[in-house]
Amino acid sequence: MINIENLSYNYYKGYKALDNINAQLGAGVHLLLGENGAGKTTLLHVIAGLLFAKEGRCEIDGNDISKRQPSDLSKVFFMPEDITFPAKCINDFAKLHSPFYPTFSEDHFRQNLEIFNLSGNESFSSLSLGNRKKANLAYVMALGTKVLLLDEPTNGLDINAKKELLKIMVGSLREDQTVIVSTHTVWDLKNLFESVMMLRRGNLLLSMSTEEIGNKLSFVASTSPNPNALYMEQDMNGFRSIEKNINGDETEINFALIYSALMSNAAQNVLDALK
């Protein structure tokens, strides 16, 4: 369980990257949305114990992560968008690094490498960007940490590799794990997300389960403008809109559409409908 209470973080010259964030995240895969500079990566750094909140606190299973106790740090891993492991290959890195993580599974590591068609002995210097990302993900997904933080995990992966990552996540993740995925390519892992967090200019606009969102909002595609729309966009195929879910009918959540809505002048209308 991640518990974030009244959390704020200031960078140089008083710039507030996070402003009084409050959220609770239990087991499951959670989507973190926000524009560039909204504070997403800063929040992940604070949860990982890599940055320290100026106000408030972040707890992992009731323990303040800023105290950086080894027993707490072994429960958390943060994988940034661009990471270089200090080893010749991912197998060498796993030998050095995995002893710090008692939940690491060698079996899952080997299975993940096989899914990505890698042996683990490939030199990082000889691998393409995409294959380096696959090697890193094969290891990270085998760590089994209670909290796993992924910043743009599908960037650099081709279409098949994204499908393979989805397969790995379904096979590797335990029921008690809390995973936060910060990404702009929301469709790659859309079927995994159990809740959505949305940051805008350091403020938390939304933190809600996908079930709650689906109960309160409907996502509608139509060939003509929707008169009941809280928010609407037009594309080559017609109109896509968000409206109140009055009839209780379940529709597939369009994460990209809700992101655009909360970034628009219609944000308050959508937020009011979610109350």
Features:
single chain, 275 residues, alpha/beta, six-stranded mixed β-sheet, four-stranded antiparallel β-sheet, 9 helices, globular
The share of residues in helices is 25-40%
Strand content: 25-35%
Radius of gyration, CA atoms, in whole angstroms: 20 Å
What class would the helix/strand composition place it in? Answer: alpha/beta
Low-pLDDT parts are none
The number of helical segments is 9
Q: How many extended strands?
A: 13
What series of H and E elements makes up the topology? Answer: EEEHEEHEHHHEHEEEHEEEHH
Strand order, main sheet: write it out. 6-7-8-3-9-10
The termini sit apart by: 24 Å
Biggest sheet record = 6 strands, mixed
Instruction: Choose one word for the global shape.
Output: globular
Mean pLDDT, as a whole number? Answer: 94
Q: What does this entry look like structurally?
A:
- The chain has about 280 residues and is of the alpha/beta class.
- Helices cover about 30% and strands about 30% of the residues.
- It has nine helices and 13 strands.
- It has helices at about 40-45, 70-75, 90-95, 105-115, 130-140, 160-170, 210-215, 255-260, 265-275; strands at about 1-10, 15-25, 30-35, 55-60, 65, 75-80, 145-150, 180, 195-200, 205-210, 215-220, 230-235, 240-245.
- A six-stranded mixed sheet has the order 6-7-8-3-9-10. It has a four-stranded antiparallel sheet with strand order 2-1-4-5, covered by helices on one side. The chain has a three-stranded antiparallel sheet with strand order 11-13-12.
- A hairpin with a 5-residue loop joins strand 1 and strand 2 (about 15-25).
- Helix 4 (about 105-115) runs antiparallel to helix 6.
- The two termini are about 25 Å apart.
